[in-house]
Amino acid sequence: MTQTNSNINARKGKHLTDGERYQIQILLKEGYSHRHIGRVLGRNHQTINNEVKRGTVTQINRVTSKGKVYTYFEDIYFADAGQASYDEQRLMSGRQPKWIQASSFIDWADKKMLGPSIDLRPEEINDRSEFGHWEIDTVIGQQTKLDPVLLTLVERQTRFEIIMKLTGKDTQSVNQAITDLKERAGDAFSQLFKSFTSDNGSEFSDLYDLLKENIAVYFAHPYASWERGTSKNQHKLIRRFLPKGCSLKDITEE
Alpha-carbon distance 82 to 49, whole Å? Predict the structure, then answer.
């Protein structure tokens, strides 16, 4: 008890870290109470209460039974949502997030849905019952304009992954990669690739217009990386070999 109290006092006035938010997400999923989580993290339980309220989102879930589709709503806490809400509140109150003066603020301010929402995806995509539905994303190296990036496409049912090296994280590079992919696949393209799910990164701003005649394209909500969990899990494997900050110049597609 003494140790818990001292931890709380030591952290008084300090904001939750990303790591603590992910711990909250995990512990909530395992069924622990807010008070217990507070003791584990050395935080006042009211801090946990406020964070859970801030980071809780409502998910729409669909279940098919006997030919009928049933829709229900579920409130779930996500660490990413908590962090995004916290950053937005700081911005609105005039207190700048740490990255506010970085160029990434431009991307943040320009966030918008670039096409049909992920909420419109049919059940065969959400439940992974059909092959051909892919998540598309990019993996960066040194975060410089001159450093190449990786374009990743992960098939949701099989987790099969295609990795393509791009000259940069920009619309033109992505468009060229997709065009090359269409040429390689030929007439089988629309059978192998039935849909793409993307984030709202500026590099994907032409994705919907580029593919709408061939396949469906959906966009996740801003700050909702969990909606593309398949690709994010695959990225963890890539990071084992290509940690953040390393140059991708010498990496080949082979």
Answer: 12
